[in-house]
Amino acid sequence: MSWLLILFMFNLSYNSFGIDFENGAVFSGYNDVRIPGDTGTEFSLYDELKTDPGYFFRAKFIYKLNKKHKFWLFASPLRLKAKGKLDRDIFFEDRTFAANTDLEARYRFDSYRAGYQYSLLEKEKATLSLGVTAKIRDASISIEGNNQKSEKTNTGFVPLINFDFKYKFAYPFSLLFEGDALAAKQGRAEDVFLGLLYNRSEKFAIKAGYRLIEGGADVDEVYNFTLIHFVSIGTIISF
Question: Could you give the C-alpha distances from 121 to 59, 125, 166, 189, 217, in angstroms and in order?
Fold first, then answer.
């Protein structure tokens, strides 16, 4: 292990640490739910209930080993709340909610990730990096109404492929397209950002744009597919 410590100390001379912080407004797109996935009643938190806009934030802590190799840790809590009535009985998890009951639903999707990325392209105008991400999903959906409440929680591991593309079209402005995504038989996950970078200096940039999260799973335990929109502004700071 001594060689790892030596390599780490050597790279302290490189501008290797950074923080990528985002926040802004979050809006629900479709959010279709059926729990249990094989016996529950399917309904929509977006089309049939009203989901309020919310606030989000997310933070990524970055370590650049050198110009080719980058590692990070990431955290992003997310909360959405929906209210309304449904015109039919709903069987959700372990309870039945009668038609025309005032319902309050809460959607939680917390994401924790560790990633590695390798620089494939370094040009004056464009850069491209690819890598892998290990994601821990800690999620829950709950429904409350008529003095009863039911909640489904789910925690799981999701492997993803990550990418980062920048195009410096007019300094100090750059186009940024980045994200994590992967699809499988049981479901899919995409977390993608498209926006602008304003590079105030080599160590400080402001970013703004649109982020999309989409995906879900169709298994016996849970059926849930969700689209979420983000209007985002943030900063990237290097030390």
Answer: 25, 10, 10, 26, 34
Name the CA dihedral angle for 60, 62, 67, 68, rounded to a multiple of 10 degrees: -70
Residues pairing with 180 in the sheet:
162, 191
3-state secondary structure of 13: helix
- Mean pLDDT, the chain, as a whole number? 93
Which tokens belong to 57? 């934030």
Chain-centroid distance, C-alpha 216: 12
Q: Cβ distance 62 to 237 under 8 Å? A: no
What is the structure's pLDDT at 194?
98
**Top-confidence residue, 113 or 2:** 113
- DSSP codes of every residue in 131-154: EEEEEEEEEEEEEEETTEEEEEEE
Tokens of 8: 């780490």
Average pLDDT over residues 53-63: 97
210, two tokens: 């649109």
Bond prior to 36 in cis (omega within 30° of 0): yes
Task: List the domains of the chain with CATH numbers.
Answer: 15-238 (2.40.128.90)
pLDDT at 7 > cutoff 50? no
Residue 64 has pLDDT above 50, yes or no: yes
Of the candidates 178, 167, 176, the one whose C-alpha atom is nearest the C-alpha of residue 206 is 176
